[in-house]
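Section 5.1 Outputs to date
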Amino acid sequence: MGDWVWRTMGLAKTVWFIAPQTTTGLIKLMISTITQGFFVSFGLIVAIGAQNAFVLKQGLLKQHIFWVCLVCLACDIILMSVGVLGLGSLISQSKTTTLILAIFGAIFLLWYGFCAFRSAYHGNTNLLVNDTSNKTSLKQTIATTLALTLLNPHVYLDTIVLVGSIASPLSDTQKYYFLIGAFGASAIWFFSLGYGSRLLSVLFAKPSTWRILDTLIGVFMWLIAFGLMNYAINLR
């Protein structure tokens, strides 16, 4: 009876010493995986593109910026979840789907770039800040945000294929930690870009500054559009 008690106490001490070490290891692994997801996502979304240019402009105009940021975040959450949880091959293996997205994306970006160049030529974008009659509706703004986000096949290659391949060696539990970090990076970036752009409102009180921004946005849109057209031609 005595030996049994001592063995039990010894086992309890062993468990007591091992448990904190195991817990510490799990916490380190969790933090490491969350950090990895954060920086992978952050590195992909920070690059200047059609989506970020639109978020910046809406933030400067103070038009539906919360909903613009929320839609961008929601798209990232859905697309990265699809990629990390193992469904990325559905997009990457379908040339027809990718080709259709590239064509429609190029057409939309050419049109949006033309509108930006037209606005720069007329120099009337600055009036939108204080003139409520020129404000776009919430539905129109959300539709534009979705179009700029989803009509670009590269967003699927980045969020689904690339992010999915990086997370593929992880265990099922680690993948959820990875996604937490990725979602956090997306949320911080879009809402910081949208609301932080208001700090530049004094600079953009000048019509000339708006003309420069609209011109740069038009150039970015057309460069991306031509890139998509080239991508579609090579894909065929």
